[in-house]
Amino acid sequence: MARIAFIGLGNMGGPMAANLVKSGHEVLGFDLAAPVLKAAEQSGVKPASHVSQAVKDAEIVISMLPQGRHVLTAWTDILQTAAPDMLVIDCSTIDVDSSRKAHEMAKAASCLSLDAPVSGGTGGAAAGTLTFMAGGSDEAFARAKPILEAMGKKIVHCGEAGAGQAAKICNNMILGISMVGVCEAFVLAEKLGLSHQALFDVASTSSGQCWSINSYCPVPGPVPTSPANNGYKPGFAAALMLKDLKLSQEAALATGASTPMGAEAAQLFALFDKQGNGGRDFSAIIEMFRDKV
Ligand code: NAD
User: Fold this and answer.
1) What global pTM score does this model have?
2) Domain check: are 9 and 125 in the same one?
3) Is 93 in the pocket of ligand 1 (CB under 6 A)?
4) Ligand 1 centroid to 187 CA: how many Å?
């Protein structure tokens, strides 16, 4: 069993650290927010008063933070204390450039590093069923895999430094675009007098099928577990979808990739967020199409 430092114990990091404790690891945790740290203590995480206290003597460090700038700040502190050969894993969703910078910082400190963003949301974090998309060396991945398996059920090595973040933002750009398309189709069906169930029965088994309709249908009824049946309580909040779409557009700009549908989806979610819907499930964007954007 490993001695693990966990930095960032919020909505995702808290339950992920709790699953590491359940698997028998010794977990020292740090978060800037005192109530968050206290909550983690109740699930068996040993609270630290500073990053360096958590990292000292740890074999592995995991960060789960909001954005690239938070990760670079935390990794600067982590790597000041890190022993050579320590493995540092970032599970946050951040921009590819910051992720690659963090890997370079780790290399300069003779540490192994992995970017390993997740999909599966807070439900998957609590249940230990997250999907991890990892970027980094074979050696870093091999050491991280058994640790990540305590928090997730699918662990994919996507390539070198930053490849996990690249996979995450490409996947979520597909998701943002497909959800907009599915919502538009249901609103058109309503105008044509076609029932939700009839469109679902056809599209979910025909060429229109995709996760946004088959598993996460944006209208109540056809998929009982989708947030549409629960007042659009997230699930996956629209603000987080907007964050990921913005990351995809920054990456498209930096690389010269043409992503016109991604750009359109980013604009639509920005408008939805501006209307005060950032805390609702992202599939609630269907209401904006009923109001005619
Ligand atoms: P959160 O805001 O609940 O938690 C982040 C925590 O980081 C906070 O408790 C904050 O106090 C702490 N923090 C910030 N800077 C710090 C620092 N320098 N040192 C220590 N602690 C610091 O966010 P979350 O929902 O847990 O998301 C974390 C990451 O996971 C984000 O990048 C998000 O995009 C990604 N993600 C979230 C979900 C989701 O459904 N919530 C799903 C997939 C991926």
Assistant:
1) 0.94
2) yes
3) yes
4) 34
- Helices then strands, counting H and E runs in the chain, come out as 13, 9
SS3 73: helix
From 145, 160, 175, give the residue that closes a domain.
Answer: 160
Q: What domain count does the chain have?
A: 2
Catalytic residue list contains 168: yes
Per-residue pLDDT for the chain (293 aa), expressed as one digit of tens each?
999 999 999 989 999 999 999 999 999 999 999 999 999 999 999 999 999 999 999 999 999 999 999 999 999 999 999 999 999 999 999 999 999 999 999 999 999 999 999 998 888 999 999 999 999 999 999 999 999 999 999 999 999 999 999 999 999 999 999 999 999 999 999 999 999 999 999 999 999 999 999 999 999 999 999 999 999 999 899 999 999 999 999 999 999 999 999 999 999 999 999 999 999 999 999 999 998 77
Contact 153, 127 (CB under 8 A): no
Domain shared by 90 and 208, yes or no: no
Q: Is the CB of 7 under 6 A from ligand 1?
A: yes
Question: Are residues 31 and 10 in contact, defined by beta-carbon separation less than 8 angstroms?
Answer: yes
CA gap 289, 283 in Å, rounded: 11
72 within 8 A of 102, measured Cβ to Cβ? yes
Q: Are residues 35 and 80 in the same domain?
A: yes
Closest among 125, 129, 155 to 142, alpha carbons compared: 155
Distance CA 62, CA 9 (A): 10
Query: How far, in Å, is the centroid of ligand 1 from the Cα of 17?
Result: 13
Phi, psi of 134 (to 5 degrees): -110, 145
Looking up residue 150, the CATH number of its domain turns out to be 3.40.50.720
Residue 235 — left, alpha, or beta (φ > 0 → left; ψ -120 to 50 → alpha)?
A: left
